[in-house]
Amino acid sequence: MASIITGYEYDIFISYRQKDNNYDGWVTEFVENLKKELEATIKEDVSVYFDINPHDGLLESHEVNDSLKEKLKCLIFIPIISRTYCDTKSFAWQNEFTKFIELASADNFGLKIKLPGGNVASRVLPVRIFDLDKEDISLCESLLEGKLRGIEFIYKSAGVNRPLRSNEDHAHENLNKTYYRDQINKVAYSIQYIINGIKAASDITFSVPEPEKVQGKTIKSGKILQNKYLPNPSPLKKIPIALSFFLLIIILVVFCLFLKRPPSNDIIQKAIIKVDPLNRWPTYAGKIRLTNIWLTGTETNEVIEINNYDNSYRHSNISNNQTEIRGIENGKYFREFRNTADNALIRSFREDSINSEEIDFWRQHHKIHFGTLMELQNSGLRIGKTAKKVNFQGNKCYSVEFNSDPALQLNNYFNDSNWTIFIDRNDFTLKGARIENFRFFSNTYNVNILGFGELVINNLTIYMCKMYILSHDNSLIFIDIITRPD
Predict the structure, then answer these.
(1) CA angle 131, 134, 137 (to 5 degrees)
(2) How many angstroms separate the CA atoms of 132 and 124, rounded?
(3) Which domains can be identified in the chain, with CATH numbers?
(4) Are 388 and 260 in contact (CB under 8 A)?
(5) Is residue 397 exposed (0-12), middle (13-18) or buried (19+ Cβ within 10 Å)?
(6) 307, 483 contact by CB (below 8 A)
């Protein structure tokens, strides 16, 4: 089966060391599962080259032949990065990894592709099945000319560093908190994004047609030359035709620019790909330290610990004397107060002391700090059909509306609120938001949220600083600043 793009032998080339497949057939199982996931993800048939023959008719001491060179003419190269793969003397390293980088760097698209959302991705998509030594990481990055990124299939616990299996005996003990099925899904989506980027790049390429004669003119090499042997139309007859053609173009441009609005779902999806290109949010785990600066000049500190893998979190408000901690662990809500100096427990409350609506409120509230776009998609708010083109704080943006609807089932945090999200028209970055009935402690406000600076944490791009401003008089309420991501 040929590649989706003309001129390429395969869409995907799987490169690996046989040493990593001999023990339990991990690579073979991965390829079979990936093929099934690709069938459920991409409409076209995606061709995959996977060498089930130990050496493809070649020994590791032999040079690569013309047949393998043709197979390396592919869109995406997936190396199974293990502790044995990073070996400059191996066949896979010399004749597959380095050879693909050489071929891809010189072809029509280059080694790196601009994705539809504006990000740039390498056509090398590493699949890591072990934590590597620093020397191996440096070796890979020297060839890739950038950070060694990719999808990890690593099971890690005390004293254990091995490939993640499709059926884990003790999945909950995996310190990386990853599921095999989720990682397969991420590989398929990453492949889809890269292929879409390659398609977009191929759409703008063109070839000069063969010479042909049209209405007394010869078209050759992109230039129009007058043919002296055929009559020319009168210049006066050309004017009405030219005016009509010119007016038609103006009408079409006006229609495209002002009348036809892009679908909101498309804009939001591109923005989500921008902030979360590898779809990490569903299993995001991390700790963020915030400083809140209030209008009065008072500063307070927060620590937000998120673990989307098991739907738990801890939200700590820290003062000089006392720390208040709210959160959910093992499906139960808790609230406790501790002495800041020595962390001694002062008092605590458990789930039976608070209603379910309040639990939902706090479950969502911590995510609004970081996963705004992803959470709005799941909020129950009704998204507008089309996006508007507007100016927001000096930026040319798309505005997308999320509105409360009494007929919809809403989370308590979003109830009665209406959101407008502003997304940059050029690179689909999130520029800010406007919220009606923004719930803050026991009051509601109409606010504008402005974001400044960006941090990349676990492959998620989030604001470093957010300002909350009252809509009616542009007065500042407070500022959130991330002081340290752990």
Answers:
(1) 75
(2) 18
(3) 10-203 (3.40.50), 264-485 (2.50.20)
(4) no
(5) buried
(6) no
Listed residue (204, 144, 41, 25) closest to 11, CA to CA: 41
Taking each continuous run of H as one helix and of E as one strand, the counts in the chain are 10, 26
Is it the case that residue 286 has pLDDT exceeding 60? Answer: yes
pLDDT digits (tens, 9 = 90+) for 38-90: 999 999 999 999 987 655 444 444 455 667 888 899 999 999 999 889 888 88
Handedness of CA 167, 173, 175, 178 (dihedral sign): positive
Other C-beta atoms closer than 10 Å to the C-beta of 84 total 17
Six-digit token pair at 64? Answer: 């690569």
432: enclosing H helix or E strand: strand 430-440
Residue 360 has what pLDDT?
63
Q: Is the pLDDT of residue 344 over 80?
A: yes
CA distances from 120 to 220, 274, 412 (A): 37, 10, 38
Rounded to a whole number of angstroms, the distance between the first and last alpha carbons of the chain is 46
> For residue 290, which of 276, 282, 300, 277 has the smallest C-alpha distance?
300
Distance CA 29, CA 462 (A): 35
Could you give the CA distance from residue 122 to residue 197 in angstroms, rounded to a whole number? 11
Secondary structure of residue 21 in the 3-state scheme: coil
For position 399, what pLDDT does the model report?
Answer: 95
Contact 8, 75 (CB under 8 A): yes
Phi and psi (nearest 5°) for 205?
-80, 150
